[in-house]
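Worked example

This section walks through a single chain of length 258. The input is the sequence exactly as stored; nothing has been trimmed or padded.
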Amino acid sequence: MSDVHRSRAGLRAALASGERLTGLFVKLPCPDVLELAASAGFDLVVVDLEHSTLGESEAFDLLRYADALGLPALVRLARVDPPLVNRVLEAGAVGVQLSMLTSVAQREELQAAVAYGPAGRRSVGLAHTGAGYGSVGLADYLAAERADPPLLVGQIECRTTDPLEQVVAGLDVAFVGTTDLTVALGLDPADATGIRAEVDAVAAAALATGVAFGGWAPRPDAAEGLGLGPAGYLVVGSDLQFLGAALRAAAPPSRETR
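Given that input, the structure is written out below as tokens.
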């Protein structure tokens, strides 16, 4: 079993046990962020190829460094791009977090992109970390992939075209994107009750289908107030957010207040 497969198995075991996994969005092409996240005790990171200026090669470098650190790393993508999905998985990603999941067809497209045939349509290669750069035979590698496939996290952040339970079935995590969901549904950001109802609907769909519930909070202590108390997969802030907060706290007084 490779480090990638061990990481996937460990994350799934934690989710199944009810233990909360806490992650961080990574938007900066800086390996120091990964070392800091690991030393701070984060369970995982999510390399963000949706809301960042990261290029693919920078994301691949981060994934390889995270793999060397033993820090599980997923990649957030804005859409299912099968060749890109294959490349990030071969670079050491333990899974894919897909934004704007709205339909069963889209979820099935993601499942097909991460799985080898006959169940999926992912192209097979062995010159990567998960296959020991060719040191693992094809049969053994495929068996490892069947036993511990990539984690799939689907972000529910707009109105779904299919029943919510059908959309999230088969995922590892149903992740509520509170900010986008608020905007997409035309809710008042100050309407805590309306937003909470949408969060609770995703949590209920996850519970009904045996899928872990997840979401984003600016800090761990803010999760409860956002309806994410039962979340087993919580992403808190991002490297840029925490850097910005620290810089503002350390900045000198403005000229007007000096």
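What to look for: Residues 192-209 form the longest helix (18 residues).
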